[in-house]
Write a structure and sequence with these properties.
With about 120 residues, the protein is mainly beta. It is built from 1 helix and 11 strands; from the N terminus they run βββαββββββββ. The strands form 2 sheets. Strands 2, 4, 5, 6, 9, 10 and 11 form a 7-stranded mixed beta sheet that branches. Strands 1-3-8-7 form a 4-stranded antiparallel beta sheet, with no helix packed on it. A hairpin with a 6-residue loop joins β4 and β5. It is globular. The N and C termini lie far apart (about 40 Å).
Length: about 120
């Protein structure tokens, strides 16, 4: 059973930076390496959206709204995924959720979620 624990978010000024981390427990490093990892966010009154994802070998995808400002990375040896957020804007304010997706086998897969961490961008 996989558990995802996110670091604390926080309050940051527009234009500032913040790094989030998400550590997976309850699984081995060899299993962690098979998961696609991602970061989602949900702002007040909006649907949860995918911010960034990273493949098992480090290939990253980004939402248009964050491309060029955010960077996702993973450290398989530590079973941890990171989200580096730069040039933050007020519209980045949201609860950020870590996500892990298992490989698809026999037409089914599993998704695991962190509890979420609040990021507020405001002056």
């Amino acid at each position: 059973q996989v558990q995802l624990v996110e670091s604390r978010g926080g309050l940051v000024q527009p234009g500032g930076s913040l790094r989030l981390s998400c550590a997976a427990s309850g699984t081995s490093g060899s299993i962690f390496r098979t998961y696609v990892m991602g970061w989602y966010r949900q702002a007040p009154g909006k649907e949860r959206e995918l911010v960034a994802s990273i493949s098992t070998v480090g290939s990253a995808n980004y939402a248009d709204s964050v491309r060029g400002r955010f960077a996702i990375s993973r450290d398989n040896a530590k079973s941890t995924v990171y989200l580096q957020m730069n040039s933050l804007k007020p519209e980045d304010t949201a609860v950020y959720y870590c996500n892990a997706q298992s490989p698809t086998l026999y037409g089914r897969n599993y998704m695991y979620w962190g509890q979420g961490t609040q990021v507020t961008v405001s002056s």
